[in-house]
Design goal:
The protein is of the alpha/beta class. The chain is built from 11 helices and 12 strands. Bound molecules: coenzyme A. The site of coenzyme A has 22 residues, from strand 1, helix 7, strand 9, helix 9 and strand 10.
Length: about 350
């Protein structure tokens, strides 16, 4: 179990993560993961509070900031302290948590609006992805009250330096031999790691001919950071309003920067434009043991709206893969409604 398994975990950037409650053993591992600061909005009197959280955090040499927010009565003073804290920590690797990421998602979004980094719409969507403030007395008023301040001191504060990931369908020049080879190598390196122990062979998830075919058919969406290719996903539309994405890959050196999310979002937007009502993906997992990257995928796909739809037989769907397997595998199709 890691920090990312904490309830309602959200990675805002490579230096800022948020969540609900963090288990004591996970708190103990934060220094080892490069964290420098923990900000906790949960009052010590809360039934789920970790009693010695400050001691656990400070024993590792991390800074601990406690701003107890009564969920029934969030105050402007709480929020001012939160803003001061984030302003003071412009670049440190920080984890900010409460019990369920309700307090934190609201405070963090309001902070980003206050400093002019986020639109009100982005903040509202971020919060709505975690909880519905309207269902809890007082929160709608609190949020409206803070938003009424508008942008305050826009030049200061913590600007999350998320790298700018762009995605696009290929153009003619992408089909250059060196580019094709690079993309093929990238995908194979990613899958060698993501499916380690599952196949007898290595480096054969794809090949330059396959990549060239996909590029020329404009069936591959490419991701770039600062013009450098860092990921891709293949897409196709099938019968009956079904679309599929596959071979999703983010460069191993650029994980957690939003490449996978941007590629899936682009694939889904494309499918909607193609009038598809459902997105499909295939997931191959070891039957008798768990693979960390597959467990990560299951959680992430579930978070973004996918659910297991059917378990199929690999013998029927991809018979050529069966002799290649190094271990028994389960082959599951996942669906997400796009309507
Ligand atoms: C799946 C994959 C493309 C994701 O790429 P990525 O660019 O690292 O992903 P993102 O940065 O967009 O993050 C995706 C989600 O994972 C979370 N995440 C990212 N890095 C994380 C980390 N180190 N620990 C925990 N969670 C993390 C993000 O917060 C995000 O979750 P959210 O949507 O709830 O906010 C990448 O892991 C990969 O290439 N895997 C191997 C290939 C594979 O398995 N493909 C799919 C086959 S079906």
């Amino acid at each position: 179990m890691g920090i990312e398994d904490s309830y309602n975990f959200r990675r805002i950037s490579s230096t800022l993560t948020t969540s609900g409650l963090v288990r004591p053993d996970v708190l103990e591992s934060l220094a080892a993961q490069g964290y420098e600061v923990v900000v906790n909005l949960l009052p010590d009197t809360h039934e789920k509070a970790v009693p010695d959280e400050r001691a656990i955090v400070e024993a590792q040499g991390l800074e601990y900031v406690h701003i107890p927010v009564d969920f029934k009565q969030p105050t402007r003073l709480n929020f001012e302290k939160f803003c001061e804290t984030l302003d003071r920590l412009p670049a440190s690797k920080a984890h900010v948590h409460c019990a369920a990421n309700f307090r934190v998602s609201a405070f963090y979004s309001l902070y980003q609006v206050r400093r002019g980094h986020w639109s009100v719409q982005r903040a509202t969507e971020f919060i709505a992805g975690i909880w519905q403030p309207a269902e809890y007395p007082g929160w709608t008023e609190f949020i409206s009250d803070i938003l009424a301040d508008g942008i305050v001191e826009p030049r200061v504060g913590r600007i999350e330096q998320a790298p700018r990931v762009t995605t696009r369908f290929p153009i003619e020049s992408d089909a250059r031999a060196d580019n094709i080879q690079r993309l093929s190598d990238l995908v194979n390196a990613v899958y060698d790691e993501a499916e380690s122990g599952m196949f007898k062979r290595k480096g054969t998830r794809t090949n330059p001919a396959d990549i060239e075919r996909l590029l020329r058919a404009r069936a591959l969406i490419l991701a770039e950071i600062d013009g450098v290719l860092v990921g891709s996903v293949s897409v196709k539309s099938m019968s009956d309003g079904l679309a599929e994405f596959g071979m999703l890959a983010a460069d191993l050196d650029h994980r957690g920067k939003g490449i996978g999310s941007a590629l899936v979002a682009h694939a889904e937007a494309w499918a909607r434009r193609m009038a598809c009502h459902t997105m499909r993906l295939e997931l191959l997992t070891p039957r008798n043991w768990t693979h960390p990257s597959k467990e990560f995928l299951k959680k992430w796909y579930s978070r973004i709206g996918y659910a297991p739809y059917a378990t199929e037989s690999l013998e029927t769907t991809h018979p050529h893969l069966v002799p290649e397997l190094a271990t028994e595998c389960e082959f599951t199709v996942w669906h997400k409604s796009l309507t």
